[in-house]
Write a structure and sequence with these properties.
The protein is an alpha/beta fold. The protein is built from ten helices and 14 strands. Helix 7 (228-237) links the parallel strand 10 and strand 11.
Length: 335
Amino acid sequence: MAILLPACGGDDSSSSSSDQAGSTSTSAEKPSKTLNVRVITVTPTNLGTWDPSNRKGYDAVAEEFGWNLEIAEAVTYGKAPAVLDEWGSAGVDLVISTDNGFEPSLVKAAEKYPDTKWIIMSDLLTKKQLPNIAGYTGDWCQIGFAEGVAGGLISKAHKMGYSAAVPIPPALKAFEGMKIGAKATGTGTTVAMKASGDFLDAAKSSETTSALMDDGADVISAIVHGVNGAIAARIQSAGNYYIGSYDDESKFAPKAVPTNATFEFQIAYAQVGKELEAGSFDPGPHTYGIKDGYIKLTPFKLGFENQYDKAQAIMKDAADGKYDADFEACNQLEQ
C-alpha cells in the first residue's frame, strides 16, 4: 500500500500518484514516548506550494514535540476511507488532513474511532459536534481578499482571474474574498473564476489559465495544490502577472510574481502541539485571519513597489475590522 520515505526531506520527484493509496514517510523516533501522528494529503508534499508549506509547519512542530510522524501522500478522496480506517483501528493519537475534500471521510472515522483525535487543516464544515475533531485554517475569504487587493492594485486592465482546481468550499470562499479585496482598492477591478476540475493535471490548469487571460485578465491568482508551477509559467510566458499563494512562489515564475498572499501554517500546528502536550484538545473550527498575522502580503516588486503601502493600508483596515461584515457573509458559503 505504501512506500516508506524519510519524513524530513526526500527526493524532488515524488513516487506517489493520485491513483495510489499513498506513500508514507516516517520521522526518526525519539527515545522517550512519543505521540503517533499521521498526515493525509491529496497531493505530494514536494509538489506545488500548499502541501510543501503545510509540511514545513508540521515537520517543525513534530520535531519540537517529538511526534512519531507518518505521511500518506497523494491519496485520492475515494481511497481515503481505507487509509483513515487503518490508522483509526491502529489507535494512533492524532490524524491530520491537509485538504477539505477529505472531511466526509474524516468525520466518519472520528465517529468510529473516538479515542483518536482528528484535525483538518482547512475549513471544518460538519454540523456534528464531535469531541475528537477540530479544524484549523486560515480564513479563505481573507486570503482571497489579500489577493484581490494585490490584483486590484496591479492590474492595468482592471481584470483579475482566479485559476482554480476543484470548486470546493475553500475555493469558492477565496473567490468571494477576491471580489471584496478588489473592490476595496477602488480601481473598479473585476474578478472572474474558472476551475480545471483537477488538483494535479497541469495541462488542464494551464488551459484554464489561458482561458482567463483570453478573456482579458492580466493578473491571475491560483489558490490550488500541486499545479502552481504550471500556472505561473503559463502566465509568465504571456507577459502577465501571477499572485502567489501560501508562500513565496517567485521560484515558479520570477518575472511574473510581484507579490504573494501567505499562510503562516506553523501558527496553527504549534497551537495543536501545545494542546496535545498539555493533554487537552479543543474541538470545532478555529480560524486565523489577517489580524492574527496568519495571512500576509509579501513586499511588492517588479515595478509595483509603490503600490505596497496602499496594499498594507487596506490590509490594516481589514485587521481593524472594516470588512468584518463582508467576511462574515463570505464565510456563510458552504457549497
